[in-house]
Amino acid sequence: MSTSAVPTGPGRSGEPDTEGTDGLLAEQLLRLTRRLHRIQKRHLEPVGITPAQSRLLRTVAHFGEPPRMADLAARLEVVPRAVTSLVDGLEAVDRVRRAPDPNNRRVVRIELTDAGRATLRELRSARRAAAEDILAPLTAAQREVLGGLLSALVDPGPEGGC
Q1: Cβ contacts of residue 64 below 8 Å, gap of 6+?
Q2: Are the C-beta atoms of 21 and 6 separated by less than 8 Å?
Q3: What is the DSSP letter of 66?
Q4: Residues 138-161: what's their mean pLDDT?
Q5: Phi first, then psi: what are they for 99, rounded to 5°?
Q6: At 43, phi and psi to the nearest 5?
Q7: pTM higher than 0.90 for the full model?
Q8: Which tens digit of pLDDT belongs to each residue from 25-58?
Q9: Strand-pair partners of 112
Q10: Exposed (0-12), middle (13-18) or buried (19+): which is 96, by Cβ within 10 Å?
């Protein structure tokens, strides 16, 4: 069978067997995800932060005002306890601090510290270096095509969303 031929499944009246192709693509995406995680983790180690802590710091920075823990949990799509653990770890190394809400003393907001802002700058460099590592085998044209394909998968539009 040539590489351009699409196998057909039994009993499908000649319909293309996308299960095999889709299964292979899914496996390749999972392997790529694991590789991305390993490379990112390696680049984050000198910064002294985990990928999850990096994501939390970047999320805090994207809010217009210091977010509540519940806001972070919702944005990160994790349980509140996970956010508490991440904030505890980042607070212990002075990258974030808990601050009372000025309008409601029962609400705690999470603020970046100066060290947290400096860490964000380091993270940008580490993420760029990780991206360079992972994309090194691709030409500029291939990177552009990949970007378009990933955009289609990440934001499938109103019909393909979860």
Answers
A1: none
A2: yes
A3: P
A4: 84
A5: -135, 140
A6: -75, -25
A7: no
A8: 899 999 998 998 898 888 888 988 888 999 999 9
A9: 96
A10: buried
